[in-house]
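Example record for the data management plan.
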Amino acid sequence: MSARSRTPSERDPAQQAAHFRYVLRLADTSLVLGQRLGEWVGHAPALEEDLGLANFALDLIGQARLLLTYAGELEGRGRDEDALAFLRDPPDFANLTLAEQPNGDFGHTIVRQWLIDAWQLEIYAGLLRSADSRLGAIAAKALKETRYHHRFSSGWLIRLGDGTAESHERVQAGLDSLWRFTAELFAADEVDERMQAAGIAPALMELAPRWSARIDEDLQAATLQRPPAQPYPWHGRRGVHTEHLGHMLAEMQHLQRTYPGVRW
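Corresponding structural encoding:
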């Protein structure tokens, strides 16, 4: 340890573990969502959308790299961004369950992206005031990217929802299918409470109404119906995932698992 003063997390092992877990959750959500969007490369409905989704994937992977590197330092076990991304099993991942859901059709992907974009807007804006200056700096960069992501996803949501009968039906079906996973977005646990008490993270209960208002505004413009609240058995941020994450990670991690430590 250097001569600098220690942070509260470094003085308290339980706090340090919560700090690591909080940053890891943000990192894994961006990593998994970026991987999902990367699956659209060469398959999007038009060249502009193909390039747009590819750029969003790169933004998210960039966010994940910064966050995973920081998480590895907080953990203190010598794991770097590559080890955390490629050498963990599904139960060790802490991403939002929503992020790991398959792409489906273009409208389904747009709904998933829009729901997470609206969530990340609130999270990153709240982290600008974090007592953790490094996390705040990462959030400031990510917030600029997320604002653009949300303009894209909300714009397409409105275009498809208020478009043809078929596009409206498909997007509503995607919303109905994915809505159950939104229950996790603001379900605070001990990690969130510790980070809030330390001034590192914003209070989820304060962010939820703003997210909900943003969602309702976009749904009204898209002529879509907000689905009713639904119970759910998954909680990806606590390591309880759907079967889709394992399949996705098998593909994402294949090269590193097959050739450990390979260098290009």
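Summary line stored alongside the record: The first helix runs from residue 8 to 11.
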